[in-house]
Records
---
Amino acid sequence: MATLRDIQRRIRSVQSTQKITRAMKLVAAAKLRRAQERILAARPYVNKMAELLGNLVSAADGAEGSAHPLLEQREGPRRLIVIITADRGLAGAFNSNVLRNSLAFVRASNATALTLVVVGRKARDFYRRRPYTVKRDMLGFWDRLAYSHACELADLFIAQYLEGEVDEVHLIYNEFRSVALQRPVRQQLLPIPRSEGAAQAAGQPVEYIYEPSAPAILSELLPRHVRMQVFRALMESLAGEYGARMTAMEAATKNAKEMIDILTIQYRSSGPSSTSNSSRASCRPSTTRCSCRAWRTRTSSPIRRNSRSRSLSTSARRTSAPWPWRPRTA
Amino acid sequence: MADQLTLEVATPSRFVIGEQVDEVVVPGIEGYFGVLPGHAPLLSTLGIGELTYRIGRDERHATVSGGFCEVRNDKVIVLADSAELPGDIDRARAERARDRAEQRLTGRSSEEVDYARAAAALARALIRLQVAARAQ
């Protein structure tokens, strides 16, 4: 049976866990807000870019000559897959959703014509344990995510695509639906899907003066469009990570509270009533010297067993702090 | 026809300028060009340079590098890879970038040099310093 001291220790342990989960939740909430602001800040650029792209693609369609290589549909089995996860866990199903989704797609692809690029430590670790070669990984930049990271990543596979080493480029990441909802999505980056250009070209085409020329502008625009898609995916993934962590840590904090409540009830009902005849000291074991000794000799807790020397110092520190869950009768 | 232009400058990371202006001078890839109200639709790529816009008699400057400029219906929209107002410019950093690029171009450093990149870096640094100097 759990003794009073066992319950006390459990309560304390859960309390310190709760402190951590609550702090993580607050940090995630603050970072989430910044990440969301960045997505909003990029929106004017994204929208205008999409509009320009629509105009230019429809203009280029009208003109004769071959389409730009980034738009050209190729028949080929060679795929490059970019998988974006977070560096860290403790974010609910955030990482595992994307990884599960990506693994299904990777398995469905032709294994001999497959190139993997992973972003985030979780994706790297996941594919390192599996029989796939990872061509390139990007880690540890999430805290200072900038457009240049997106450019680096995008230029890598644009170059490979233009050199004809791959025929398709796909991106798998967590889309930021809302704070509580992230959804893994797969997006084809290259060749740029026709629909992305055509859908935007609403209304009559504008007769522009092109400087230097429409094809020249298009070939400047398309790589930037791809870079921006990557940047958006990175930003959404980052916001999604914080959203998922916030939700997960909020649930954990709530669970910890429930657990503390239950344990406190247990402590109170088994505490003063069952030991009503004993001295007050036994109701407050944490303040007595003998509790120190008891702590030292006890080996029942599996976590403490391996770090006895450390538990000594922590127990000494803890005994000096007043026990907040003192029974009211004491 | 409006008697003013709407100028909007956006980069991938933020919206930099949104103002009613009387005149804009844009660093196009083939040289600077001026835009006044009533301009014909124009689409140009940007070089590295100084964007100048005038509100009444007040002339203001900003740096831009790489991207596009669209002129349409008295609206000038600049989508730049990077754009900075004079207040955003870190002079010390620009000076360091200039010195580094100069060193690379004059071949005094031993490393392998990508000349196009170094030249672009030098141009960006010089424009930043120029715009920062104008603000003072």
Note: The first strand of chain B starts at residue 5 and ends at 10.
---
Amino acid sequence: MGAVFWKELADHLGSRRFFLLSLIILVVAGTSVYLGIQGFQQNPGAAQDFPYLRLFTTAPGALPSFLSFLAFFGPLLAVLLGFDAVNSEFTRGTVSRVLAQPIYRDAWINGKFLAGLATLGIVVVSIVLLIFGLGLFALGFPPDGPELARLGVFLVVALLYLGFWLALGILYSVLFRSTASSALAAVATWLFFTLFLYMIAGVVADQVVPVRADSPAEAWLRHENLRDFILRFSPVALFEEATLPILVPSYRGLSLLALLMQPGVPTNPLPLGQSLLVGWPQLVGLLALTSVCFAAAYLVFMRREIRTS
Amino acid sequence: MIVEAKGLKKEYRGVRALDGLDLAIAEGEIYGLLGPNGSGKTTTILILLGLTEPTAGAVRVCGHDPVREPLAVKRLVGYMPEKVGFYEELSAVENLRYITRLNGIPEGEARRRIAEALEQVGLREVAHRPVATFSHGMRQRLGLADVLVKRPKLAILDEPTSGIDPEGAAQILDLIRRLRDEAGMTVLLSSHLLHQVQRVCDRVGILHRGRMVAEGRVAELTASGGYLARVGRASPRLRARLEAEDWALAVEEVGPGELALTLAEDGRPALLRFVAEEGGVVLELRPKQPTLEEIYLRYFRE
């Protein structure tokens, strides 16, 4: 499997598509972090607790934070690394030549998946380090232990999230014979989960539980719960809900109930373990989605006949 | 026997690709698997390699069962697929290096073998050019180099000469012959062009609809077709005399005073005598070499 892994990794890192997408993410992330730093300079009080974590989650003005950008564009990078992993080998005619070598079939697809994951890891880690560098430059003091620990956990979750999209891309590359259809399906899925599901959730919640500004609190609660329930089918929403408590230590939950009780709830930061507990169900959901997706790609590929004509 | 298959059957979604195929290939032999497209050649090859499983039947390749021990078989067998594909953006050397790594060949040894294989197929000058710039014939030769770096006991080549000009095809066939003579490799190649493979194959098997319809040495398969003759200055009397004989299977007037006939082997002395007696002249007399198509047709009628 090592040989497959290193070859695929070299292919990814040398490809033009990888270069362009990393560039987009880098530019966008850099911009949002730069604006975050400017915010600190205008309002130094905000930099008091966990300033480095704030770099990832807050951005003044109309631009979304780094976290939102990663949630939105990260999947595109991941899915584009995977969408032609298997079917392009069929169309180029390399699949029978490679599988006639003494390797197990699953070593091949596992190697491809791991190489994609390693590629994504390299991108995410280097961007995060870059942000750290910028932060050090702007703030003048290094991050402390708890901040580093939270960022480490965040990186693992981010990789899990991108791993889901990579597995989805690979699944499509096994299901569709042509790379054009798998690319279309992958981008369509990405758009659906990042944009359309949010609209659909809102519309459905409005239809089932109509609310007005003067509706009772229970109605609002039911409305929001239904919306959240639908949204949680999307890995994007799961990722955002799972990472917010990690990056915002005082965060205690997304539910309307927590928001309504906000005045009575203390705003001091939670320990890392407690923050993890807040987002635990979402984390497990994300892990399950990734595993299911990869297992499906694996099973379909293992049963596929090699002959193409 | 390096390859032994008995009663192979294979169905793809209800379509029968192989229907009880038997195959035996001895060590050091060049065996040609012939047949029209869709006759089951590629399916047979994929089963021998363990890349697909037979629906029924037993196979042994180099003493291993490809269904149960695919890795043992793949270590000993080199395979060149019909439409051999490479990673276009990588060079010839890099493509071969991937194969040596997958085979776990140590780097130093791999470098030697790759250089040697590229030399043998005549691609040394372009070794570091990306495969995207290669012509079809060069790709085919690179496919052969790809088999060579493994130093296999058995090389399976699926349509090694398809889509190449006659000169290129002859080069590849000569190379295959040399490999057997020098390295003692057993070769199984498939083709639908009998005249190309009859030069290199020791034995051929003809496949049709997933069955072996004929098997044997090329000479045996093609010799039994009788003789063809062309006679000039033929008088009507000569024609009448010829037509009366049993050994003259077909007599036809192809030009003014010119006859074309098909005759059985034992009719040759009589033909020459008749022509001499009637003042004619034999323009041509040669063994009828049946084409692959004619052999198919003959076996289907039986």
Note: Chain B has two domains: 3-222, 225-301.
---
Amino acid sequence: MNSEPPGFELVFDADGNASLLLTGDWVEGQKPAAFAILRSDLYSSSTHQLVLDSSRLGSWDSTLMAFLLQCHNYCQDEDIDFQATDLPTGADKLLAVATAVRAHIPPQEPSKPWLSAFNPARLAKEAVDNLSESLGFIGEVAIALTKLVAGKSNTRMVDFKNFCYQAGPEAFGIISLTSILVGMILAYLGAVQLLQFGAEIYVADLVVIGTLREMGALMTAIVMAGRTGAAYAAQLGTMQTNEEIDAITTMGISPIEFLVVPRMLALVAMMPLLTIYADLLGIVGGGIVAGGMGITPLQYINQGETALQFSHFFIGLIKSVIFAVLIAVAGCRSGINSGRSSAAVGQAATEAVVTAIVYLIIADAAINILFQQIGI
Amino acid sequence: MVTENVSPGSEVHIEIRDLTMAYGSFVIQRDLNFNVNRGDIFVIMGGSGCGKSTLLKHMLGLISPTSGDILYNNESFVNASPDLRGKMRQCWGITYQSGGLFSAMTLAENIALPLQLYTRFSSAEIADIVAYKLALVGLAGYQEYYPSEVSGGMRKRAALARAIALDPEILFFDEPSAGLDPISSRLLDDLIVEMQESLGATVVMVTHELPSIFDIANNSVYLDTNTRTMIGYGNPAELRDNSDQAVVRQFLARGIAAPAEEQHP
């Protein structure tokens, strides 16, 4: 295509009025003429009128229009009479439409120093707010649960069953994989140390106690936080976006009873079962590693039995119930408080997983210290 | 991209040939045959659930037809290679029912995206063009707002600004004025006409807003829910007065009964 580069010439007449001659093809692919040059020319000339002359203008597209809009805005700000009557058809209309509404001036927000995000006072306040909100949420759930027990709740049992299926059988695959591997890792870790003392048989004790008391429940909870907690946040966040939660509220149904209680109960019902399953597979995984070190299955089981105490198993189960409540609270709270856009739903899911994992670790540490103190 | 003034009705721009649309074995519309001329404002209308939006999705290539063809500038779109389809799509501007703006981007970033992808403009030039496109839809100064921070009508206009970012040849609208108040809806209609006239673009819109249809459309097609095919094709005002189908006349007269002898044949 044989096209001329775009340009302009500013011509002044005897009265000091300026006319702007547009030349060349103002289309994409050409280096457009810079408005900054025109602005400085106009600024130094202190003219009161700018007349457009497009007699030598070739083809044009949005590049020209963007330039003309800047001319118009500058002339408006500087009280210069901008006459753009001599424009090709189409361009005059577009300029008229583009300049019909005055530009909106966004309110100035005080800019925050970059490091303010790390202000310890603010971080502490956020953490306290977050915690108190979570406690408030747990309170609301407790009220909803008492209503459920009294038979006055709007919780649908169909939902509960569906969520049980999603949080239980559908999670078997991932729980199987993680728990076997964690059992193996535990056994490896212990074996390396115990071999030095010729005490490798105690790998069985290590795996049984470690899995039952700690790893079975914790690993299941972390997997479920990423899997089910995030799903709850995304579901409720999308419902918030679609105004479904508004609809539920205006029907006189508590969203907590209708949406949160079935999810939480399903998780509370399924997590202990998943934990027992994970315990079993974790011990099997440890057994595989023990087998590789020359411990026969019979020895492993015998040694494991001596380490097996009901209290270990019981502590794991208690943890799993507490973890289930924490995951459901983190997931549902983030979902219900989510903003109404797709970005906000993503944020809610992230927040749900992060909060859940923080809660899990803190709760786990607290429970361990508690049981240590009371000597179980 | 360069603007030319084209009088409506001179040249076929989009051609729908024997198009049949189905979800599995469920036929939505069959045997659709119509042309959209260059510079037309063309309306696809019909009752709820008749397949208007589905037809639009077929025209956009989001769904493949069961049989038949769609031609743009006498070139088959259905049988085009993915590369060619991509090229054809660059000449289109599309606004979706709820805007389709990316919520994680500001309005300026939304409009800049197609410019960054398909043009060689520098970022300063893109910023100027974005300012111009926003000014065109009456949103000058709203560059740094996120879609969630502006009203529904402003979102629709911002979506229009994104659709015209590349000075398209064809503008597609899915229910442009749904959910807008009468004044905003009228302003949007005016804007569509202005864009069509000054860009010389062809406009294809799905709508059942009668005032819009009569105000701005010069050609239309009516899709029937019961017979699952098109039963009206032509200027909407003429269809309202002279269509041989009572359903079409009723639709365009907002359900007020058509002459009795034709209602009960």
Note: The domain at 38-51+89-255 of chain B is CATH 3.40.50.300 (Rossmann fold).
---
Amino acid sequence: MSRTLPLRLRILQYLDEHQGNSLSPSQIYVALEPEYKGEGQFSPAKMKWHLMCIKAVGLIEGVEPFWDEFGEPSYRFRVTEAGHRNLAYLG
Amino acid sequence: MEDQKLQIALDRHQLSHAKKGLGFALISGLLWAASGTALYTASLKDPFTQASEMVGLIIAASLSLAMIHDAAASILVFIFNAINGKSKEFFRTLRTRPGKIVCLGAIMGGPVGMSGSLLGITMAGSTYAMPITATYPALAAIFSTIFLKEKNPPRVWVGILLCIAGALIIGYTPTDETMSPNFKLGIALSCLATIGWATEGVVSTYGMDTLDPDVVLSIRELTSTVVFGVIVMPIMAVSGIMGSIPGWDITIAAFKTPVVLVAALAGLFGGTSYILWYRALNSTGVARAMALNICYALWSVIMGVLLTDQELTRQSLMGAATIVVGALLVVANPRELFSLRKV
């Protein structure tokens, strides 16, 4: 059984596994829920915060803006070349 | 029309994220000043009293204080993370490569930075050592531009330099002391401390690209405490730098007096300051976070005037004004924080 990764690293890895596709915060949240369910750091709102932080350092990018199910503005996210490169080194 | 409304809402959302990061950095400076004030108060009491002229005692007391400070901060951050549901993340993070990189940053910032700074002040005198170590934000900004490809426009560079200049003006004390025989070594150790702190900022920020800042900080404080207690203090004692006074004796003596509570309080302020600072490093970048953190010199002046009998001098007013202008230049355009790096 593989070890659970730190959440932000796992988010990056998950987006990297779906290269070419952009995913919404709620799609990522639902996909990772079995691994992190019940942890205080893991909620729909905190998922957006984690994604904004990873986006600011250029490892992922925000594309296709949309209004999410809570009426909040949001991006869909996809991994950048820098994110892919870093993951190969860090993962 | 709908697209435009969405874009404006997204901009506002990102702007609030960026402003939060800048706020974290500013408040971290305020709490760092509070921590420094508490550490200073503790250093004036037994067994930390530095009234003695004996260099070994001063070093032993300072290192002992630094270790208690980091240990208290470490406990605070660990509890904070447990409350926020990040305990499992701590062990997961330690197993990863970025987690191990963060440990290296902790050693550079804690034992190397702090010991180098204390020894530098002792050997070269604060008049020469402090201006050297105060330049760490500039060195960190250079490192972050080179290694992290951080985007820092000229305005931010001017702001960083003004913040450093302000801190130097506030802290400068002319001296007519003769140079100690270890003067050159003291200068070299001050340079090492500057490199240590700057490296910590860049290395930890790199780790935080894929790790939670609060968890990274927990690793930083724990690593620092352990290395201080198990490696630095015994080496200092064996090398004879601390004379015949092992730092552990002072630490144990401190735990038998109420002064340990003051040192622990300093650690609590310091730990909270670090939580905010690490979050700021992650969300505003190394250069801005460090420039705003060094504003602690400004907060120290304000606290000194309000809480102690320190007088407001023309020198500290000038320094404070320089820092305010520098900080304003650093935070002037939060939109720059939407994308921190050239990647």
Note: The longest helix of chain B spans residues 2-43.
